[in-house]
Amino acid sequence: MQSIKDTYQRITDTIVEQLEAGTKPWIRPWRGSVRHSRIPRRATGKAYRGINVLMLWVSGQMFGYEENTWMTYRQAQDLGGQVRKGEKGTLVVKYGTFTPKEREDDEDRSIPYLKGYTVFNVEQIENLPDRFASPAEELPSVPVPHLETVEVFVRNTNAKVSYSGTKACYRPSSDDILMPGRDRFDSQVHLYSTLLHELSHWSGAKHRLDRDLSGRFGTECYAVEELVAELAASFLCADLGVAHDPRDNTAAYLASWLAVLKNDKRAIITAAAKAQAAADYLHQLQSSSRVNEAA
């Protein structure tokens, strides 16, 4: 089994390589197939989560895969398919715990582990059942985001959002989100990417997810919180079917994120997990809102 150290390092090296090249791997170039922009899925149709989303987005972008379904070599064989000779797989991870015999009597006896394994995009596999072949899409000449979807999503969280001034931020003191006037944004894509980024910050408030990163990252907690918010926004954009283009101070953020990742090989795993938790929390508020409306 791949050691935890090797798996963490391989994932971090992949993300660092992208950042050093000036590319944020969670920013999807969503001009093209709608399928290409969605959250990656397993052969069962279940969505990947956390760091696995980033790893599969990176691979899909590097090799130009339009499909978003991935499976292991064995799964492909069980389905009657065959990975083409020479195809290179993509690393994903599985979380779990185990209990060493010498610690069976300990109260905190379970030890977490991270196991890496390889998956292939369905475009790398021949002879799969027809259900894995998506129908051809007639792409619009100018992709239009589902803007009302985002408006409803944000409204259902009950977050207080106001549009004025020139700054986008979440203000803990007043527990609200301040956005620049709508006419100040270059595009609707930029507006909604920014709004979902700030909504992700909003989710981390003490009376919500209580996302305090200072104990884990010390003076670097601000940079990591920004990374968490951007990853969460990218997950939400993918879930809602809209493009993600935050257009932040890219050079400064890339430098700070690279410093964190190079100093701590587990940082990107933690950030992705926190981002997934934020996205999950905001999705859960949608259900709560519908229940309240029905009552």
Overall shape: it is globular
**SSE succession:** HHEHEEEEHEEEHHHHH
Enumerate how many helices there are, as a single number: 9
Total beta-strand segments: 8
Task: Give Rg in angstroms.
Answer: 20 Å
Number of domains: 2
Helix content: 40-55%
What percent strand? Answer: 5-15%
First-residue to last-residue Cα separation: 51 Å
Biggest sheet, spatial arrangement of strands: 1-4-3
Mean pLDDT: 85
Largest sheet: 3 strands, antiparallel
Low-confidence stretches: 29-34
Written overview of the protein:
This protein has a three-stranded antiparallel sheet with strand order 1-4-3. The radius of gyration is 20 Å and the shape is globular. Mean pLDDT is 85; it is low at 29-34. The protein has helices spanning 4-20, 51-63, 73-78, 147-157, 188-203, 214-217, 221-240, 250-263, 267-294, and strands at 70-71, 82-83, 90-98, 111-121, 125-126, 161-163, 169-171, 176-179. 34% of the residues are buried. It contains nine helices and eight strands. It is α+β, with helices and mostly antiparallel strands and 295 residues long. Strand 7 and strand 8 form a beta hairpin. Helix 5 (188-203) crosses helix 7 (221-240) and helix 7 crosses helix 8. It folds into two domains: 1-139, no CATH class; 143-295, no CATH class. The longest helix has 28 residues, at 267-294.
